[in-house]
Amino acid sequence: MTLLRTVGLLCLSLLLFAGRANAGLVFHADLTTGAEAGANSFADQANRGAPTTGPGLGLGPSRPLSFGTANFLLNDAGTALSFTATVFNIDFTGSQTPGAPNDDLVAAHIHAGGAAAPTFSVVWGFFGMPFNDINSPGAALTPQSDCIAFATGVGGTCSGTWDLTEGNITTLAAQLPNILAGRSYINFHTTQYTGGEIRGFLVQVPEPATLILVGVGLLGIAGIGRRTV
Fold first, then answer.
1. Domain of residue 149, residue span
2. Sheet with strand 198-201: strands edge to edge
3. Do the Cβ atoms of 202 and 29 come closer than 8 Å?
4. Distance of alpha carbon 223 from alpha carbon 117, whole angstroms
5. How far is CA 197 from the centre of its chain?
6. Alpha-carbon torsion (45, 50, 55, 58), positive or negative
7. Which residue from 71, 82, 89, 74 is spatially nearest to 30, judged by alpha carbons?
8. What are φ and ψ of residue 227, in 5° steps?
9. In whole angstroms, what is the distance from residue 4 CA to residue 19 CA?
10. Quick one: 64 exposed, middle or buried, by C-beta within 10 A (0-12, 13-18, 19+)?
11. pTM over 0.85
12. Cα–Cα dist 207/141, whole Å
């Protein structure tokens, strides 16, 4: 039931993004463990022979596979990139799965780079360190956060705006060419997978396919949720 309610909220969020698309560019990202790369990723654990039914196996108790989705809107002037992300099966508070710290969220960022590579540098953070959403109310929190945990279940939502001059030793202005070229992704890092547990590349969604493509993504999430229950 929680999954259905959340998918409904995602659909509403998508409609809002689509309605504003004529004032900017829309991007979508499906966050998965399989998209991760590097020695600390779930994908690498699977490649080295660890069981593939979910993170935690071989490094702690088994737990459900984490996943998520995110929508982005770059305004028409190219001066602000707003986003909303929803993530399942990552503990946003450290208390959603008591006694099981492996799934605790420790940081969340946007990464980007100027050339194809397995992993890009952090260019803008919105949970933990670095935190670059200067104008966010979450800048006053400890840890700094643009995220809200689910009231029930495991996971949460994040939303914020990357303004033109913000960034982690960079700026949105400097990273726009990389974002537009498909060389950027959103990444959530956990206690177990500090190098990143789930990631999703920002893919520009052309009109009028916005609702269709992202709707398929939401249906996929619902399907994953059924299989992991």
1. 2-228
2. 121-127, 105-112, 184-190, 198-201
3. yes
4. 31
5. 10
6. negative
7. 71
8. -70, -25
9. 23
10. buried
11. no
12. 37
Give DSSP secondary structure letters for 130-196. S---TTSGGGGSSS-BSEEE-SSSSEEEEEEEEETT-SSSS-HHHHHHHHHTT-EEEEEEESS-TT-
- The DSSP output letter for 113 is -
Rounded average pLDDT per 10-residue block, the chain, 229 residues = 50 51 85 82 57 47 87 97 97 93 95 92 98 96 96 97 98 98 97 93 79 54 53
Cα 73–Cα 82–Cα 107 angle in degrees, nearest 5: 130
Query: Which residues on neighbouring strands pair with residue 127, listed in sequence order?
Result: 108, 145
Q: Which residues of 95-131 are buried (b: 16+ CB within 10 A; e: fewer)?
A: ebbeebebbbbbbbbbbbbeeeeebbebbbbbbbeeb
Residues 6+ apart with CB under 8 A from 87: 31, 66, 67, 68, 155, 156, 157, 158, 188, 198
pLDDT at res. 150:
98
- Give the single-character DSSP code of 104: B
For residue 55, whether the previous peptide bond is cis, meaning omega lies within 30 degrees of 0, is: no
DSSP strand pairing (121-127 vs 147-149) = unpaired
Bridge partner list, 73:
26, 82
